[in-house]
Amino acid sequence: MAEVVVYVDHVDGAVRKPTLELVTLAQRLGEPVAVVLAAPGDGLDPAVALLAEHGATRILTVRAGEFAAHPVVARADALQAACAHVTPAAVLVPSSPEGKEIAALLAVRTGSGLLTDAVDVENSGEGPVAVQSVFAASFTTRSRVTRGIPVITVKPNAAPVEPAPAAGVVEELEAVFSERATAVRVVSSTPREATGRPELTEAAIVVSGGRGVGGADNFALIEALADSLGAAVGASRAAVDAGWYPHSHQVGQTGKSVSPQLYIASGISGAIQHRAGMQTSKTIVAVNKDAEAPIFDLADYGVVGDLFTVLPQLTEEINNRKA
Amino acid sequence: MSLRIVVCVKYVPDASGDRRFAEDLTVDREDVDGLLSELDEYAVEQALRIAEASGDGAEVTVLTVGPEDAREAVAKGLRMGADRGVHVEDEAVHGSDVMGTSLVLARAVEKAGFDLVVCGMASTDGVMGVLPAVLAERLGVAQLTLLSEVSVDGGVVRGRRDGDRAAEVLEASLPAVVSVTDQSGEARYPSFKGIMAAKKKPVVSWDLDDLGIDGGDVGVAGAWTVVDAAAGRPARGAGVVVTDDGEGGRQLAGYLAERKFI
Ligand SMILES: Cc1cc2nc3c(=O)[nH]c(=O)nc-3n(C[C@H](O)[C@H](O)[C@H](O)COP(=O)(O)OP(=O)(O)OC[C@H]3O[C@@H](n4cnc5c(N)ncnc54)[C@H](O)[C@@H]3O)c2cc1C
């Protein structure tokens, strides 16, 4: 049976959810072979167990200090080495900015077509089909790779994670790093502070605030609602540019792209660049005091009202119902 | 020798207009107002700042690949303050994917001569965001992408990349390709002087022959991917919009509970 390489995104050995979604998706195309790039000291036993439990028949690991010392290209070098070892029918990579670059480098080096930001991947007689959402999600396209190995990056929440126990046979591989990889040095690295909330791109529920929130302190209202729902917090660019919330939480064309089960936009007008990052959400709720705000065109449920009264009441009611 | 900077820019359909596909499933660029991609204005800005800071007569070239209209993207860069322009125009380029476009850009950048290539973080119409990395690969030089800060000093480029997990400071010796985000600093407006001066700045036009590229390696024919179908996303079913009469929050909680979100 054909093998499908899945690039594993993990933090110190903790596999992130979108990778497990890819292992599930890969089974539509063939047998998943997971590729794990790690630091020499990372404990990988839990990752190996988790990947096997979800369907990885083989797990290729590459351990090297280069991954932390040099960005992006070192990872592409190792992924390429793994692909040479396997000769896969397709390669799936989680769609993060880094994941897309790694995938692109693999594609150009192997003379292979690249499709990014798939929201679904299907098997057709002519190889894998990537379903993509383009022009701020106003169009859906279906595309194929016509040359080389199909290299496809897939957005979070593209498929439910399903257990499918498989052998998960581990092999250690060596990678040789290119001059281009080591040419760029990481001079310093400041880890992001943990918020205690779910990761924005992976969250099932996202609660976002925009200019209507009116100030950094008022984001406490957004956070309180998010916490009542176990949600991640997002922000519009207007709120980020005003310095009310960190850029890492920006949703939209130049921020994160999210497609949660539920997206709640408060004090956000719904500009095309914001929509580009959230329009594929399953259910959209908007709270805005302007009945004409374009966000209501997308909303499954909209409240025309002042967020300073609607949100506290909503949060209180949710907390009461849960109690 | 003074620093040679090439900025790669794209002429894109205006995002506030209707964007659609043509019959051949390439992006329809007829009758659509275009402009220099806003995300590439950040690239022009950083290139100009680096040139100004170097103070040794650094030269900034604005490069675009695209149809005749795309010349306007170059012109905008010149009005902002770049020194010269290059416009690569060739029928055969129409419908190129990132592999074709990066090939054309790589040859053009080499022909123009460069120490540093500056790109925007993504185009506002395609939004793959991978062209700078592929371009660096084709040029065989270092890549520092998605930088929110960038500077060049003594032949070394340094920048900050705000990644998913960590903010990293990266560094490499030139030559290199960088891409800058919309966090890198507001782009300047062309001054009156800049607008007047731009009219006299040289813009050269090259076609694929000038770059030694076979037309079959680019365009729709040379693409390594194919779009089989494109469909307008069904309009979202008309949602419920209620006006808050004092109970809006509780009603919304009811809606969320019904949908099992609570
Ligand atoms: C190249 C480019 C990239 C961009 N990328 C992004 C991006 O990634 N993400 C992004 O979000 N934007 C992006 N933008 C900016 C985008 O165009 C909008 O400017 C931005 O999304 C507006 O944010 P907003 O909706 O919070 O603010 P506004 O458009 O000002 O809307 C504020 C809304 O709040 C409502 N409001 C005010 N007070 C209250 C209240 N008390 N209660 C309820 N409602 C209230 C108002 O009625 C209004 O609808 C980009 C723009 C460009 C040009």
From TrEMBL, chain A:
GO terms for biological process: fatty acid beta-oxidation using acyl-CoA dehydrogenase. It holds the Pfam family ETF. GO terms for molecular function: electron transfer activity; flavin adenine dinucleotide binding. Residues 4-190 form the Electron transfer flavoprotein alpha/beta-subunit N-terminal domain. SUPFAM superfamilies: Adenine nucleotide alpha hydrolases-like, DHS-like NAD/FAD-binding domain. Binds 1 FAD per dimer. The keyword Iron-sulfur does not apply. The electron transfer flavoprotein serves as a specific electron acceptor for other dehydrogenases. It transfers the electrons to the main respiratory chain via ETF-ubiquinone oxidoreductase (ETF dehydrogenase). Belongs to the ETF alpha-subunit/FixB family. This is Electron transfer flavoprotein subunit alpha/FixB family protein.
From TrEMBL, chain B:
It holds the Pfam family ETF. One of its GO terms (cellular component) is cytosol. One of its GO terms (molecular function) is electron transfer activity. Its cofactor is FAD. Residues 24-215 form the Electron transfer flavoprotein alpha/beta-subunit N-terminal domain. The keyword Transport applies. Keywords: Electron transport, Transport. Transmembrane segments: none annotated. The electron transfer flavoprotein serves as a specific electron acceptor for other dehydrogenases. It transfers the electrons to the main respiratory chain via ETF-ubiquinone oxidoreductase (ETF dehydrogenase). Heterodimer of an alpha and a beta subunit. Belongs to the ETF beta-subunit/FixA family. This is Electron transfer flavoprotein subunit beta.
